[in-house]
Amino acid sequence: MVSPVLKEIQGVEILSLQDNYIDVLTMDAGEVVKRPMLVRPEAEKEVTLTKSPKAEHGFSSFITVTGEAGPKNMLFDFGCSDDGAAFNADLLGIDLSRVEALALSHGHFDHFGGMKELVKRTRRDDLTLVAHPGVFRRDRFMALPGGVKLKFPLFSREDVKAAGADIAESKEPRSLLDGTCLFLGEIPRETEFEKGMTNAYYLEKGKEVFDPLADDTSLVFHVKGKGLVILSGCAHSGIINTVKHACRVTGVDRVYAVMGGFHLTGPTFEHQIKPTIKALLEINPEYVVPAHCTGRNATLAIERAMPGKFLLNMSCTSMLFKA
Q1: Cα–Cα distance between 57 and 79 in angstroms, integer?
Q2: What stretches of 21-114 show up as alpha helix (H) in DSSP?
Q3: Average pLDDT of the chain?
Q4: Distance from the first to the final alpha carbon of the chain
Q5: Which of 56, 99, 128, 135 could tie 107 with a disulfide, CB 3.0–4.6 Å?
Q6: Exposed e or buried b per residue across 196-222, where buried means at least 16 C-beta atoms within 10 angstroms of its C-beta
Q7: Are the beta carbons of 153 and 138 closer than 8 angstroms?
Q8: Which InterPro entries does its entry note (predicted)?
Q9: Nearest to 233 by CA among 107, 86, 56
Q10: How far is the CA of 307 from the CAs of 8, 245, 276, 300, in angstroms?
Q11: CA distances for 300 relative to 27, 154, 191, 294, 306, angstroms
């Protein structure tokens, strides 16, 4: 496989249009972390809080890449509800007409649910959604105790068309935004401890088949002089598998930041927290930004193990990783 182009960039800003958490009173903004100031002036030294951002079980991001050709924008994932991420985009006054590319991390409802409303706000009819063909797998479900099947909402090619976008399906790495972003494609499963969702299945010809979530993928950016920024949706492939594959595909060993859902929440994944942290310490990124489905226990453990590298993400927060 010939590695696609991934150009060095001056910086990438990842604005979470949707995440599981919000706290408007943190007051911890800095050079990397930007929290929204959702206030309007009333009088001298008086401001009034406006509406709060929405947080929900889902993930969506508005990304700004700054390269030689100037800033370029894209959307990666679209949140859970119809209007959750779109509400936050409106609240922040984001001009989504600047969006040039769309990408989806995998075919679960908490990542594609808000696509129609976000694409609508771009006011464009020339956008293409890049995704692994497996995002359209039918009849997905989780096997719960007592024989209960938790069915996942269907995502179809017709849904993409109805949202006003074309489709580019790829299992292989693919360049986006003129080579300043890499869609990582299908990720090999190599670590011993990252087993994916062991209770994920789908129906095929009436039979229950284990769902390895082969469609799970991430985005990669190469910040000049700093290394790779890797952004996952849920990292069902395993966040360590994802980082290692990103390094292998790009030929870049240095990792600047690892951000996104690491899917370590709940008792099924408790045993993966320690080896994941051990591997992250060995990779030694400058920043680790757990989000979405990483889970409370895993997030706390990462913060304690890597206090100087940990950044707290939430809805409407921007993370700026620059040269």
Answers
A1: 8
A2: 84-92, 109-112
A3: 95
A4: 29
A5: 135
A6: bbeebbbbeeeeeeebebbbbbbbbbb
A7: no
A8: DHPS-like_MBL-fold, Metallo-B-lactamas, Metallo-beta-lactamase_dom, RibonucZ/Hydroxyglut_hydro
A9: 107
A10: 28, 26, 16, 10
A11: 19, 33, 23, 10, 10
Report DSSP state, residue 310.
B
Can you state the angle between helices 270-283 and 239-250, rounded to 10 degrees? Answer: 30
The DSSP annotation for 252-287 comes to ---EEEEEEE----SGGGHHHHHHHHHHHHHH--SE
Q: Residue 2: pLDDT above 70?
A: no
- Name all domains of the chain by residue range, CATH numbers in brackets: 8-42+50-322 (3.60.15.10)
| 49: nearest Cα among 31, 83, 22, 30 | 22
HSE of 84 in the Cβ direction (CA atoms, 13 Å)? 27
How far, in Å, are 69, 190, 231, 283 from residue 243 at the CA level? 27, 11, 9, 9
Tokens of 145: 């105790």
Q: What is the DSSP string of 103-127?
A: E-S-S-HHHHTTHHHHHHHHT-S--
**Amino acid in position 108:** H
C-alpha 310/C-alpha 34 separation (Å) is 15
Q: Determine how many CB atoms are found less than 10 A away from the CB of residue 274.
A: 13
Distance, CA of 241 to CA of 247 (rounded, Å) = 10
Q: Is the pLDDT of residue 1 over 70?
A: no
Asked if residue 7 lies in contact with residue 67, where contact means CB atoms within 8 angstroms, the answer is yes
Backbone angles phi, psi at 199, to 5 degrees: -110, 20
In this prediction, residue 48 has a pLDDT band, given cuts at 50, 70 and 90, of confident
Could you tell me the CA-to-CA distances from 139 to 5, 104, 125, 156, 228 in Å, in that order? 36, 19, 30, 11, 36
Are 79 and 99 contacting, i.e. CB atoms less than 8 angstroms apart? no
- Nearest to residue 114, comparing CAs of 134, 139, 96? 96
Residue type, 263: H
CB 32 within 8 A of CB 323: no
